[in-house]
Amino acid sequence: MPPLETREVWLRGPLPDIPPLLQPVAHALLQAREELNVLTHDFPDELLWERPTDRNGKSVASVGFHLQHLTGVLDRTFTYARGESLSSDQLTALASEENPTQPTPSMKELIQHFSEQVDQALDQLRHTDEGTLTEPRGVGRAQFPSTVIGLLVHAAEHTMRHIGQLSVTARLITL
């Protein structure tokens, strides 16, 4: 049997203080953080905002975009899960995700921001009452209908989707 620390996070067992129904969300976020650290090891800062093109000549999102977006999505979806509206700072961050902020953050700084956001998300999960998971929540200015559990699960799956996209982009531009 492989050592516990080499298994995917969900195969390591329950996480302390995380409600049972929210374990998969927490596992996915921790897995994303681990994979991001592996994917970005030795990735050069000068390639953060490079946008490779696909075979049709269309550019794809940069590694820097994915890193900013990962952090922002967690922040926004967990805000909605709390039943809150986005702040002006969150809206500004959303509008600037495709472009580096000034001064341009390093890979290390972007990864640190994401890691801190994962920690905040895990703290929120620890304090989420499972009895509230089916409560309705509105998303965005249009208040599209969702639930607490819908937002939390979406945050986890969206995070993993962007980890996959970041992985492909990083490989393309470092070939």
UniProtKB/TrEMBL annotation:
Residues 29-166 form the DinB-like domain. It comes from the Bacteria. This is DinB family protein.
